[in-house]
Amino acid sequence: MATKKVPQRRNKKAGKSTGKSASAKRLAKCKSCREKKKAYDTEYHATTKRKKYRAKLNKQTRKGKCPPGYDVSHKKDGSTGCEKRSVNRARNGKKGSSKR
Fold this sequence. Notes:
Largest sheet: 2 strands, antiparallel
Number of domains: 2
Strand order of the largest sheet: 1-2
Number of strands: 2
Mean pLDDT: 81
């Protein structure tokens, strides 16, 4: 007896939602606002201070302080420690709330 083929079901809402905050809604509607924010972010992340900050974290990850698959993560007290990449990066959308 042959098995019945089931059609692929994809998540129709994937990639279509916007943030719930007032600023996220404004950026979703206003193209010039998005462009202005992108220009600001590009300029901000190009500063020497931000480059040094990223380099410091990357260096800690490369040094072997963290095992493969882990990132340098910030704790509530301001220090850093190792945390799984998936957990560290997933927290970004949860108002930055942390159990660490």
